[in-house]
Write a structure and sequence with these properties.
Helix 4 runs parallel beside helix 5. This protein is α/β, with parallel strands linked by helices. Strand 2, helix 2 and strand 3 form a beta-alpha-beta unit. A six-stranded parallel sheet has the order 3-2-1-4-5-6.
């Protein structure tokens, strides 16, 4: 359960792009998208930073190593063809419900973590951010990968449990029940927005 939000908390929304937020998920993805959009709107109203993250993994080193379930081409021609296909299909397009607005930060990542070689940590530090709220897909991949990196860098983390999901139900539950409680706090979109509004109101009244 969320106890408090840091005075300077950012919302980080992971990989809500057309090529990822489709297909079968452990929970209805439309509900997840709607809740993420509500968080985005609430953070913007509060004047807090919104970070929209999307991914382009083609050619990244981790996609080139041997694995039991290879999912990306390892040769230059195959990568070129996949890139052209994804571009034509709008794979990288951010969902309209969370389209970046002026004042938001847009981050393109190549790996599971939004912190790895993206400049995100430096951008947050420049803005004095000490806490983050995480939402998006997939829970056990982009969200958990980013959360682990955030934890290593000392951020206070809150997970919006109903604004994230995973293609594998067991993986989603493992992240929520085993991993996330060890590195942050977990609560619903409603609870996070309520806490954000209360703290924003308190700050405004104190001025």
């Amino acid at each position: 359960m969320l106890t408090t939000l840091d005075k300077n908390t950012a919302l980080i929304v992971i990989d809500l792009q057309e090529g990822i937020a489709t297909g079968q998920f452990a929970s209805p993805v439309n509900n997840v998208i709607d809740n993420a959009a509500r968080l985005v709107a609430a953070f913007r109203r509060a004047g807090a930073l919104v970070v929209i993250v999307h991914v382009n993994p083609i050619g990244a080193p981790w996609t080139l190593v041997r694995s039991q379930e290879p999912s990306f081409p390892k040769d230059a021609e195959g990568q070129k063809l996949l890139e052209e296909k994804w571009q034509a299909e709008g794979y990288y397009n951010i969902l309209p419900q969370v389209t970046p607005q002026p004042g938001d930060l847009l981050v393109t990542k190549k790996t599971w973590s939004a912190f790895y070689e993206t400049g995100l940590h430096e951008a947050l530090q420049e803005r004095g951010v000490t806490g983050i709220v995480l939402a998006g897909v997939s829970t056990s991949i982009g969200v958990e990968g980013t959360a682990r990196a955030a934890s290593e860098r000392g951020y206070n983390i809150c997970f919006a449990s109903d604004a994230m999901t995973d293609r594998a139900g067991a993986a989603h539950l493992h992240s929520l029940n085993v991993i996330f409680p060890r590195i942050g706090e977990i609560d619903t979109t409603d609870a996070i927005i309520e806490k954000l509004n209360a703290q924003t109101s308190f700050t405004n009244n104190a001025l």
